[in-house]
Amino acid sequence: MTDEHDDLDRLFAAYREACPAPEPGPDFMPGVWRKIDARRRLTLLIPRWAAGFVAAAAALCILMGGYLLLPRPVESPVYTTTYLDTLEDSPALETLAYMEVVSFETSESQ
Amino acid sequence: MDGVDVPDSLVRRAREGDDEAFNQLVRAYRKRILGTIARLIGRPEDVEDVAQEVFVRLYFSLEQLRSPGVFEPWLYRLTVNAAYDYLRRQKRRPETRMADLSEQQMLLADAAEGARVSGERDRRARLRDFVQSLLAEVSEDDRILLTLKEIEGLSLKELQQIYGASENALKVRLFRARRRVLRAYRRAQALERKEVASR
């Protein structure tokens, strides 16, 4: 069991030797800075996009608020008669029912 | 960890935005990080790219570093995370076939194959493949942990700083991972013995 563990340790040590650290290429440092610059540009763009989006949303809100506040003509039906006139002209349901009941009772009693 | 002699003042200057200090830090650590990544990901063609990603992450996270004293574990944590991300991406990406390679890459692959012909390199390549096949028996997380401990030679204390986990939790993970690798090693040995006997 211990032998196996020792074998494994030796194998790992040999693996470490078989995988030496590669030499960095000549483009390593410029590559790092290119990537840093690219990410920097991106991080600068995001707040700009966010600010543009906020400005557009605020402008839209103002426009919609203005539209809602604009005075508009009220479209209402034109009445030529008063409420009392209308009531007087139309036979009330209660009156009709009362009349029917009265007439029914009258016929029963006869 | 084999110490890289970097003064705290250099880390402090880099943290304050001194690009020259940052360059010096990269120069001091790049070879070691390249080596660690090579052993963690096992793909020589992508090692430099992943190492660059580590230093880019370092550049943008340096200001979060509490004290220069914990710089090395911090850098190792970034290395481990970049290796994880790479391995995760590789899982999603289908294996590159020869038909997908550009002409230049084909030439490089041919050259690499040609170089392997020499005996010593061939032996090393077989050893690498063998150990990687053993390490493939454990999960990516445990493979990285085991590689850092057994191959990179990091101490438990250093691993604690990198992972932010308790010593016992790390010991248990390492023990289990090592046991699985050992089982795979036994299987491989048994297979080899069988092959030798059948010859």
Question: Can you characterise this structure?
Answer:
The complex is a heterodimer of chains A (110) and B (199). Chain A has helices at 2-18, 28-69, 83-89, 93-109. Helices cover 75% and strands 0% of the residues of chain A. Chain A contains four helices and no strands. With 199 residues, chain B is mostly helical. Chain B has two domains: 1-95, Rna Polymerase Sigma Factor, Chain: A; 119-199, Winged helix-like DNA-binding domain superfamily/Winged helix DNA-binding domain (Arc Repressor Mutant, subunit A). Chain B has nine helices and no strands. Chain B has helices at 8-15, 19-41, 44-61, 71-92, 103-115, 119-135, 140-151, 156-163, 167-198. The interface between A and B is medium-sized, with 25 and 37 residues.
Amino-to-carboxy terminus distance of chain A: 122 Å
- End-to-end Cα distance of chain B, whole Å, is 44 Å
Mean pLDDT of chain A: 80
Count of DSSP H/I helices of chain A: 4
The CATH class name of the largest domain in chain B reads Mainly Alpha
Which CATH architecture of the largest domain in chain B is right? Orthogonal Bundle
Shape, principal axes of CA atoms of chain A: elongated
Q: What is the residue-mean pLDDT of chain B, rounded to a whole number?
A: 84
The profile of the biggest β sheet of chain B is:
none
Radius of gyration of chain A: 46 Å
CA radius of gyration of chain B is 19 Å
Q: Outline the low-pLDDT stretches of chain A.
A: none
What is the CATH T-level topology of the largest domain in chain B? Rna Polymerase Sigma Factor, Chain: A
Query: What is the total tally of β strands of chain A?
Result: 0
The unreliable regions of chain B are 94-101
Class from helix and strand fractions of chain B:
mainly alpha
- Helical stretch count of chain B? 9
Please identify the oligomeric state.
Answer: heterodimer
Indicate the percent of residues in helices of chain A.
over 70%
Q: What form of chain B results from the Cα inertia axes?
A: globular
